[in-house]
Amino acid sequence: MGFDVGVVPFNSDGWGPPDAPAAPLLFSRGDGGATQPANIPFAPFSRSEKLGRVADWTRNPNFGANASRAAAGSRDAVFDFALDESSALSGAAADDASFRLVDGKPPPRPKFGPRWRFQQRPQLPQRRDEEVEARKREAEKERARRDRLYHLHHRNAASGGGPGFGANRRDSPTLKSSVDIQPEWTMLDQIPFSTFSKLSFSVPDPPEDLLVCGGLEFYDRSFDRINPKNERRLERFKSRNFFKVTTTDDPVIRRLAADDKATVFATDAILSALMCAPRSVYSWDIVIQRVGNKLFFDKRDGSQLDLLSVNETSQETLPDAKEDINSAYSLAIEATYINQNFSQQVLLRDGNKVTFDEPNPFASEGEEVASVAYRYRRWKLDEDTHLIARCEVHSVTDVKGQRAFMTLNALNEFDPKYTGVDWRQKLETQRGAVLATELKNNANKLAKWTAQALLAGADMMKLGYVSRVHPRDHFNHVILSVFGYKPRDFSTQINLNTSNMWGIVKSIVDLCMKLNEGKYVLVKDPVKPQVRIYEVPADAFENEYVEEPLPEEEQVQPPAEEDATASAMDAAAEAEANGAAGVAEGEKDSSAAAV
């Protein structure tokens, strides 16, 4: 298959094509008329028309409707007469320009390039859902918290003479030592908490119940259905007596020690303080007495162990003034009263009690006592060492025809501004978030409650959520919810290792067994995470003055408290807050009028 290039005419007489070509390049129409080149683009013209251009090198190839096509073939655009208005092909070009595709979608723009590099990205419309609103509220609360801490620090610094804020903070009640270290005391050892976390000991045998004293009332299951929308007022039980007796003052423990039933004696409150020592922040102390081959762990009268700490492990700083209702001391008193009243209100007070071997060893005859049972249990630490502890349970219930012991404790909310979580709004929908916040702010208290429930062999531990009626009213409270947990499951949830708990107790017992006979005190440092052991005189802590909290009836009462109804109490508390704001406004107006 060949390709014929045709005949090229040759002009022998001069330059240019000959007058009569050797072979016809044009096809005739047969009538002797005009001819047209074959397969050659040609712009027709007549003799009356001006001759156009063979090639236009000055034309802009990117001009006009066919710019993109001309740009693609810019080399041939100089020979294209379709855009020439004088050309006969301009009409066909106009027809082509009027043609449109059905799909008129523009081609996609490049995401990157010179034109897009410095252009601002279009903003998406803001989401207005609950998550965004919740984040805004949390950010506002965090900003308010930082502002409050900033003003608090500057106010304390100003009162302490500027840079001396650290000294004032160190002298605050929360960071003071729980006991005054006397110069005649001899420090024998100091143990950092870092060594406690490495200890582990497993009690070989389950505990043995030697004696159970007291009486228990049944738990009222209707409190499990309480929610923030169906809250209940917290009642007061002034006629029922609660006892916080130390180890050596317990007549049952004295009797067991005389019978040589064990070598180490303590209470569940003292043991739980030792077991959860690495989680503690505030200072506490335990008195240790070595008598013969026996060891007694005691607490002082009015000790910190009798009170419940509030926000001990929180990052928020509480007011230092002892008279402030939100100070650490005032909150501890309030939390202790709440726990006592809560533990009696959630019971069925129908006279039906479960009695045990002996009555309450601390109650007088005819005295009304709280529902509590004391289980004297013995653990075997090694072949020569046994430990007896008095453990408390607060209630009993029937589970599948069997009696189950329960412990009853209450967490208290004093001001949502300090925690950032409002129980009335979160308890129903975000119970886990509320519990996680409490585990962060009260890790030591919850761990001690769990340890006490494990020591007492309780089948269930009930946690109540109690809040103030008004943030500025620390006398009136409501129960918002009550939840139950199994102690072993809850200890796993809060990362409380029972082997580590017993390892701490075993190490302290082994250390004290090497000491001589006498009296010692174990003190948690108020600032550093460590404990110290001091040797003290035999008569220490016997005749010292103890500042005990005032009875509730002697404390300053809020107005209209006893005879008012529940709504009137709320109105009085709110009126007190509004009255303070009104006084401030009145002073502002009077000063403006004076000016």
Strand order of the largest sheet: 3-17-16-7-8-6-11-10-4-9
Question: How would you state the average pLDDT, rounded?
Answer: 77
Shape category: elongated
Q: Counting H and I runs of at least 4 residues, what is the number of helices?
A: 15
Largest sheet: 10 strands, mixed
Total beta-strand segments: 17
Strand content: 15-25%
Binned, the helix content reads 25-40%
Question: Structural class of the helices, strands and pairings?
Answer: alpha+beta
- Rg, rounded, reads 46 Å
Uncertain spans: 63-75, 115-120, 157-172, 545-550, 554-573, 580-595
Task: Quote the distance from N terminus to C terminus.
Answer: 115 Å
Summarize the structure in words:
The termini are far apart. 29% of the residues lie in helices and 19% in strands. The longest helix has 30 residues, at 130-159. The protein contains 15 helices and 17 strands. The chain has helices spanning 67-72, 90-98, 130-159, 165-170, 193-196, 251-258, 268-275, 328-345, 416-419, 423-426, 431-441, 443-456, 487-493, 498-513, 566-594; strands at 26-27, 36-37, 186-192, 208-217, 232-233, 264-267, 285-291, 294-298, 353-355, 372-380, 386-393, 395-399, 402-413, 460-470, 473-485, 518-524, 530-536. It has a ten-stranded mixed β-sheet with strand order 3-17-16-7-8-6-11-10-4-9. Strands 5-15-14-13-12 form a five-stranded mixed β-sheet. α7 (268-275) crosses α12 (443-456), α7 packs across α14 and α12 packs antiparallel against α13. Mean pLDDT is 77; it is low at 63-75, 115-120, 157-172, 545-550, 554-573 and 580-595. With 595 residues, it is of the alpha+beta class. Component of the eukaryotic translation initiation factor 3 (eIF-3) complex. Residues 99-177, 547-595 are annotated as: Disordered. Keywords: Cytoplasm, Initiation factor, Protein biosynthesis, RNA-binding. One of its GO terms (biological process) is formation of cytoplasmic translation initiation complex. Residues 113-125, 565-584 have a biased composition (Low complexity).
